[in-house]
Fold this sequence. Notes:
The complex is a heterodimer of chains A (about 260) and B (about 200). Chain A is α+β, with helices and mostly antiparallel strands. Helix content of chain A is about 25%, strand content about 10%. Chain A has a domain at about 135-255. Chain A has a 3-stranded antiparallel sheet. In chain A, strands 2-4 form a two-stranded antiparallel sheet. A two-stranded antiparallel ribbon of chain A has the order 3-8. Chain B has a 7-stranded mixed sheet, with helices on both faces. Chain B starts with 6 loop residues before the first helix and ends with a helix. Chain B has helices at about 5-20, 80-90, 95-100, 115-125, 140-150, 190-200, and strands spanning about 45-50, 55, 65-70, 100-105, 130-135, 155, 160-165, 165-170, 175-180. Helices cover about 30% and strands about 20% of the residues of chain B. Chain B is built from 6 helices and 9 strands. Chain B has about 200 residues and is α+β, with helices and mostly antiparallel strands. The model of chain B is unreliable at about 1-25 (pLDDT under 50). Classes of the chains: A alpha+beta (about 260), B alpha+beta (about 200).
Amino acid sequence: MRRVLAVALLAIPLAGLAAGALGSRYVGLPGGVFKSVLRYEDAKDGVRIAPFALMRRPVTNAEFLDFVRTHPQWQRGKVAPVFAEARYLSHWAGPTTLGDNALPDRPVVWVSWFAADAYCDSIGARLPNWNEWEYAAAADETRRDARADPAWRERILGWYSRPSNTVLPRVGLQAPNAWGVQDLHGLVWEWTEDASSLLVDSDNRTQGDPDKAKFCGAGALSMDDRENYAVMMRVAMLSSLDGHDATANMGFRCAWSAPR
Amino acid sequence: MKRSNFATTARAAVVGIALAMGASPAFAGGPTARPLPSDSVYQLALPLTDQAGRTADWRNLRGKPRVVSMFYTSCQYICPLIVDSGKAIEHQLSPAERGRIGIVLISMDPARDTPAALRKVFDKRGLDAAGWLLAAPPAEDVRAVAGLLGIRYRQLADGEFNHTSALILVDAEGRIITRTEQVGSKPDPAFIEAVRREAAKRS
Lengths: 260, 203
């Protein structure tokens, strides 16, 4: 019975995606109750994730080039600085030219949250939220939740210790995880829709300080699983960026929900 | 962001809304035909529905400097302090200065902050319709406007929010002049000074 239900849920996100290009670009995930590495005081037993579809790979330079050609207001030099800082797409040869530093099959980086949000919106999709991203990224090649495995954690951390000034590999080189999603680890950082909901102090030194009134309500999030440094670094990175910021390693992929 | 965000559409929007919204003192900043500066927060198209049930793009707030913040009406803790902050700023200003500054509180909880809910706070706190605007954007635009204003938030399972609090001063063209995270009835002196300087400018 449980298996039947899981299959049915898996089918929901994809049912709405037309067969063909859309269907091959995304993979459906069933969702369910997921225990985040973040300690949500309001959801101690886990967060509920609705079925959704996620892009198999991060958005590439070629794909983003198509977008800025048809949406010139997002071209470098034309975009309003409130939506993207000066370094936005600065590695491209020109506003509509990729060049040697931005090969077509590499993940697009130097994109702001606003630009990533606009790209996904332009194809009828959205950015994934943090819980969806973390849930998809908890899998390794064979297990849907490999987070407790020290060897898997070491592998991910190995990527973070590599210098970031080398040329990015192309998307899709790494084996798909158990969901069929690629490159969640080991390629780029990724924007989430709710990046600005991650109210975490990057050094965690002020955790639990009652005098710290920067955050209203229950205060800053903290980590339930301090051994999971890889996810902690993701959260720290996202919590440190504003929506117009762009960095050399920050890319994105889109998600999609079945219409309600 | 579900619609075009750029100055080309801004002009048409401002003109259209000026016609539709002419009777709203807080919304009426004096729309202008000048192109919108690229560093203006009004580059974002953002329909706001206010405490009187009127809907207009926030570009109609152009023409007058504004103190902007985000809140939600069911908030028990920091949010009443945000209203206090706005009142404290008003008290520091001369009547003439007060008339040249608007205060705009944007809801992060559009699902619950209907015009009636906004109106209730508006009336309870005795706010002046000439200077104050409490308004809610469409749900899908909250992240974007919060991003522009540098406010971070997360909705909790019980419907409350965790959020950072800040007052943001924008000039008559929507450019961010300064911000303060000192919220409450004791205003930040440097912020008040900046508000005075903006109020003294002739647009």
